[in-house]
Amino acid sequence: MIVIILSIILFLIFTVLGGFHFYWIFGGVWGLKKVIPTKGNEVSTMSIPKLATLIVGFVLVLFGLIYLAKSGLTNVQPPNWITNYGYWVIPSIFILRAIGDFKYVGFFKKIKNTEFGKSDSKLFSPLCLTIGLIGILIQLMA
Is this model's pTM higher than 0.85 or not? Predict the structure, then answer.
């Protein structure tokens, strides 16, 4: 029962995160300043192409659907390679994201006093770590 609940939680988290990316694709700006890493002088360190945002949105929704399938609430059965590897790879991606690049993102970033840095410390990195830990817990309990 715990695996079902945790899988549904990950499904909901990934669906909401994917939804934010679709919102930004269609011109939404809410929260945008908080999700793009910046240097100390608030100049964006990257220009994120819309195609990349679209791909990330689809991948996040796909991750959510993979965990929905894990819950057993659908008749969809993921391919064996997802069952064997994907349920370990997905949490690993998010744990690595939580650790970060040691400069702009993650718990060990050096640039912390930007709008993104503060949001990353308070929300994004803890969320990524939580996603990773829940994913691993699901695998260990399944």
Answer: yes
